[in-house]
Amino acid sequence: MTVERLSREDRFMLWPDRRWPQVNGALLVLDGRPLSDRAGRFQIDRARSFIESRLERVPRFRQLLYVPPGRLGGPVWVDARQFDVSEHVTEIAVPGPAGEAEVLAVVEELWCRRLDRSRPLWSMCFLTGLPEGRVALFLRIHHAIADGVAAIATFAGFLDTAPDAGPAAAQPWTASPPPSAGELFRDSLRERGAAVRRSVSPLLHPARTFRAVRGVWPALHEVFADQPLAPTSLDAVVGQGHNLAPIRTSLSLMKEIALAHGATVNDVLLALITAGLRRLLSGRGELEPEMVVRISVPVSLRLAERAQARGNVISTMVVPLPVGNPEPTVRLRRIAAATAGRKTISRPSMAIFPTNRLLGPLMLKAIKRQRVNVASTNVPGPGQPLYLAGSRILEVLPFLPLIGNEPLAIGAMSYAGQFNIMAVGDRELVPDLDHFAEGMRDELHQRRVELKTERTTRPVPVCS
């Protein structure tokens, strides 16, 4: 039997999970009419049947994370002996009138719940009672299963490009037996042998090792050895409660802003975050001229097709945000220059960072010294509308987990021409998350007005 161990990258996502749940999430708004009866009542059984019929496309959703005892090696994926889709696909009626504030209040509570390690590490909760026949779906997938790119590829197994792609009958499924202790032990010996070879190889090839270390040192310097910044009120350890703030715009506007300033869409996102931080820190009386806040940005190391993405294959990039500069255009250009330089740096997988009891705390101390207190991600989504069980997905808002001393995380995703952003803040450390979101929205509005003015004042070419 093949023993399916978690990769080193996937195991890295379990380490902070002891204190800060590492879950990727998304809030989808659907046209719920295809999943409702003639009276407009949502049919949860119909949704469960459809999702169960697609589970063969996502094997990880019927597997458990099993940690073997003793010296039998690292965590493995095993089939759940008993699987009940109703434990993972649930329904909550949102108290009416179910506007966005009421939906987000329910999602905030769900977002803070831990996934049960005794079951497969995912959940889908349908939120009903929304106006105009809409239904929200809050999806959570443990980070050990997938990073942001892989989470989209994983969830795509349940989606269609047309509304009439009906569900096939759920195929009979029988759990495969877990590996025996002997199989785990033999596989663990092979795993330890490979680890020994990896540790000895640098000693046998010192020149090659030196070149490799020299190549990734600039990336490590960003995380561990850059000049510490002055402390702010954001420099504190994340707690348990969270609050949420959505920001919506269009992908075309983001691209137009980027093109006008020689930047990328992600540069524009970082500039919006910078504007939000200016509003937040100004409201706290902390904003200073030439102030800089560092943000961590995940970098995908995938070489294969994103549609086939699985697990975690990421590194991280630290970008200085010129929060203290009052000029939006100057801020965007500085960010674009900083990211352009950092993109040329070779970056190691996050799995190289130690997580054991001796070196793990030292690594955390070095990272905390840099005061990287904000995180963001920008995941390209599908350009065309998609459907779940015949219901059109109207919008998608991504969620990032909070960790360590990063009490503010901003996730962004494009979908069918939209560019939607969800800011997640620690409830105690960022109670004024609405100020941050308003700063981002005001910056977007200002950019939109500037582009409109430029288009109307642009000289019209005269044909001779």
Structural features:
15 strands; 6-stranded mixed beta sheet; 464 residues; single chain; Chloramphenicol Acetyltransferase; 34% helix; globular; alpha+beta; 11 helices
Protein described:
- This protein is an alpha+beta fold and 464 residues long.
- The protein has a domain at 222-383 and 402-457: Nonribosomal peptide synthetase, condensation domain (Chloramphenicol Acetyltransferase).
- It contains 11 helices and 15 strands.
- The protein has helices spanning 8-12, 44-53, 100-111, 148-155, 181-204, 206-224, 251-260, 265-283, 328-343, 359-369, 433-457; strands spanning 23-31, 63-66, 76-79, 89-93, 122-128, 134-142, 159-160, 242-250, 293-300, 314-321, 372-379, 387-388, 391-399, 408-415, 418-426.
- A 7-stranded mixed beta sheet has the order 4-5-6-1-13-12-7, with helices on both faces. A 6-stranded mixed beta sheet has the order 8-15-14-11-9-10, sandwiched between helices.
- β5 and β6 (134-142) form a beta hairpin.
- α7 crosses α8 (265-283) and α8 crosses α9.
- The longest helix is centred in the C-terminal third of the chain and has 25 residues, at 433-457.
- The termini are far apart.
- The mean pLDDT is 86.
CATH top-level class of the domain at 222-383 and 402-457: Alpha Beta
Order of helices and strands: HEHEEEHEEHEHHEHHEEHHEEEEEH
What percent strand? 15-25%
Q: How much helix is in the residues? A: 25-40%
In DSSP terms, counting alpha (H) and pi (I) runs of 4 or more, how many helices? 11
| Fourth-level CATH superfamily of the domain at 222-383 and 402-457 | Nonribosomal peptide synthetase, condensation domain
Separation of the first and last Cα atoms: 78 Å
Arithmetic mean pLDDT? 86
What would the principal axes of the Cα set say about the shape? Answer: globular
Which strand order do you get reading across the main beta sheet? 4-5-6-1-13-12-7
Main sheet: strands, sense, barrel: 7 strands, mixed
Report the CATH architecture of the domain at 222-383 and 402-457: 2-Layer Sandwich
Give the beta-strand count: 15
Global Rg: 24 Å
| CATH topology name of the domain at 222-383 and 402-457 | Chloramphenicol Acetyltransferase
Class derived from helix and strand content: alpha+beta
| Uncertain segments | none
